Amino acid sequence: MNTMNLHLKIAGIISLGLILFSCNNNRGSSSSDTTTPVWVEEVRHRNIEEYITTTGTARAEKTIEIKSETTGAYYLQKNPKTGRPYKLGDIVEAGAVIVRLENKEYENNTQLESKKLQIEITEKEWEGQKMLYEKGGATQKDVNNAKNSYINAKLALENACITLKKLSIKAPFKGAIVNLPYFTPGVEVASGSTIVGIMDYSKMYIETQFAENSLTKLAVGQGVHITNYNIKSDTLKGVLTQLSPAINEDTRTFSGYIQIENPGLKLRPGMFAKADIITVRKDSVLSIPKDIIKNRRGGKLVYTVDRNSAEEKVIQTGISDDKYIEVEKGLEAGDKIVIKGHDWLRNRSKVKVMK
Question: What is the value of pTM for the model shown?
């Protein structure tokens, strides 16, 4: 009885062992046949630019605050584009009169009409002396004195016109009104009062600092991509115009100037901007996304797909931008490279390409 029970127990243990072995063997076989879903794209040619990135505050190239040069009653003029008085933000053309100051005493003292008449008188006298000189009735000195009187009369009129122009506050260049202190119409404004501030920010600049180790990579004339953190979708063009040869001993940096083209006036004076200086550019080179590269045993590898199987490819790389990197060796144009799902791959892994 005991012997029979012992035989039954041994047989049960053996059967259980065979069942467990069979299950484990099936799991191993299933694991080896696992198919990994992956997403691929074809390797293709792109233009790649390598940057040195810096930041800075954008400033207008032209800016001016116009002060009154004489006293006078204040009258803000109308903007011909809107038919309403000028206001902050209006674009003014070069030579446009923004404010007029009225000062009758000042105008009377210039004696403008009298000076115009004086020119006519002296010009006739000069012509008369020249005719007398030809007939022997006057000397060369008489002619010269008459000419000198005419010249002085012209200068007096020009000075009077310059004096009167001080009553008209004009825009010296095309730009936007950025400062317009309020004065009640007709109120007396003192000489030296700020009347209007104008900026032309169709061209701007950034003064910035570069790290010492970038000194050999930068050069005047290099192109720059300018972006503002509030308008990231708009990239403006710039150029590196100045570089200081001196290194700051405390910060280990050197200064540079970047000029910015701002035709749409989207970048505003005072905005904080990012500048990517193009140090190297290569056109139509094989490139792949930077983030799919694996570093293994000191080398760089990626996965391609061939007949539903992943294949490791060791590559050599060149320059890179923020998204893509140049492939110098290891891949060909048209290779299907794994861009998603590569973290779980090994060489010759079975894969299913997802759409």
Answer: 0.69
